[in-house]
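Appendix C reproduces, verbatim, an entry submitted by the partner laboratory led by Prof. M.T., so that reviewers can inspect both the input and the predicted structure.
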Amino acid sequence: MEKLEDSFSPFDLAMGAANKLNPPADFDGPVRKRRFTDPLCLMFLLVTWGITSWIGVWSLQNGNYDTINHPVDYKGRICGVDIGSNGQMLPSFWHHVDALSNGVCVEKCPTSSNFSPSSRSELICKDDGDLLTMQGCTLNGTFASNMSLLVTCGGCMFQTESKSLNGHCNPLSALSVIDKVNDAAVNQGKEAFEEWKNFKYASYIQRLMKDLRTSFPIIGGAGVGGAAFFGLVFLLMARFPCCIAPLTWISAILTSAALGGAGTFLLFLADAYELDQSGMHSNFKAACVLILAYITWSLAGIVFFSIIIMRKKIDDAISIAKAASRSIREVTFVPLFTIWLTIAYFVMIGILSFWFLILATTRSSTKETVATVFGFELTYTSQEHSPLAHYMFWFLIFVALWTSEFISAIGKLTLSHSFCGWYFTPEKEEGNAVSMMRSISTVLFRHAGTAAFGSLFIKPIAFIRAPIHLLQSCIKGSGLDNTCVDALICCCQCSLFFFERFLKFSSKRVYHHTSIFGSSFCKSSHESYYLKLRNSDLLIEAGPVSLLSVLYQKFFITSGISLGSYVLLDEFYGEELFSILSVTLVIAVLAWYVAEIFTDVLREAVSTMMYCYIIDEEMMGDEGAQFVTPELDEFLDAFYEEQSKLVIGSTPRGYDEEFEVSPRIPKNVDLI
């Protein structure tokens, strides 16, 4: 039989991989005497929050919120706010005026099109003073009498039947307008402007910010609120073991159906975008929606086949989730804590969204001469964000992601601390002394730095680890054996040695270890990694079930909220949004994070209970795990029995012929 030491490398043995945990004599659960862990990382997070606040103040001082509420004309003036050349306030609506999507402020959007004007008053034109200075728009110092020439020179535009979209007069058929303007240019002996495909009303950031401001009731109500409601319903049902099996299977089946329906809907939406004549939806946008439809269909297929292929794993996930549901039921105020986390998350999203919105208004106006259109030069005032503002946008995105993960990490540490305290309660039937408030205060005042450290590294490392492991597996499985390949692998291993170690050590089990022993992130990473290796037979096989216990529910809540939000957005704000799909994608991301707060309670209960069990078994030695619950005991007996059947007559890769499954020591049974 292979010895434990033989499964570790010399480096791992030197690092203490084979050294089992040595608890204090009075160990009875999470340690009470703790120190503040990883303070430098918390200070770094606080500094980033301070910089974020400074960005917000700077944006308030340098931005103009009116640019979000109102359109801007070709001279950089805000419609309905600024004063025009005639000394009066500019009208509130915006109408395109040239082929470069510049516009002028108008009293109202035209209700009919006029492509055969007889006078300049029947056109939409720029200011008279600017029109007189434009090349091709004048003849002997007066306005050209040819209306087509005024349109071709970029000084005027045909009145176009349109509808108001956030103050912009959106043509009902932009493509017909483009064709008419090109025909007018051809009649003047000019070449058609082939690059002109549609009208651009603002930058993508501005359009998105306007859409988010307009649809905020749906985002906050149906998006965040809906995800929180269904997540809370799931959490309350997860307290009862009888509800977990139907909840899991129904969620899995409905998730596949919802994704399939969403893919079909996106396919029809892509066709509608291609046939749309308003110019609001380009061919590129239609292609992106079509690709998104195929991706959604692929996800539906993956979910469906995963249900079939992994049905045994799903059954295991249901079994261990039933065992963990008792901890959720007996630890008081768990649902209330998740509501508190959701409120904290919503406040964070609200503050950062406001800073994003204000930062989007900090555009500086610069006058520039653009390329020739129809043989004439057009001069206009463009508004662009400064390079500093662009860096601020990326910094705010970084802070938003880090803060989201930090709130999630605080939740995981708090739940893990509570569930660990519950697990190490000797007589659970007689009640427990676990206090959720004590766990919250312990995490906030002792381990907030560890939460900041983990939230900064664990999620990005999870994305980096996958392709690295895939590359290593491909190299090992390829059978290549030559000097060049060996040298390349050696160089890569030497170059990435410390990074590879950091990738291996960093995992969410760090939070469990910190919750029990109060150690820092790095120490917890080191000890939890080797604890995992010493118990790999259980964790490698049983570990993924904690993810499966909540994965389908999370997908179901996100997909359901996204579809419902799209319907509501189309019903109540369909005429006011530039892109319903963009807002829906934002809602999907928010719904995923909010659903994760509630569904991960069950996942944390499962993973914490398994982690406490292997600590319990390792520290108690020959006595076996002393705190294991009857529900978990039953699951583990079934698991080890199944594992023993799998290895009969076969030898797992990497073991000799004397391989056998390590026998499990039942609770309170001494070895003879």
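The radius of gyration is 32 Å. Additional entries are available on request from the coordinating office.
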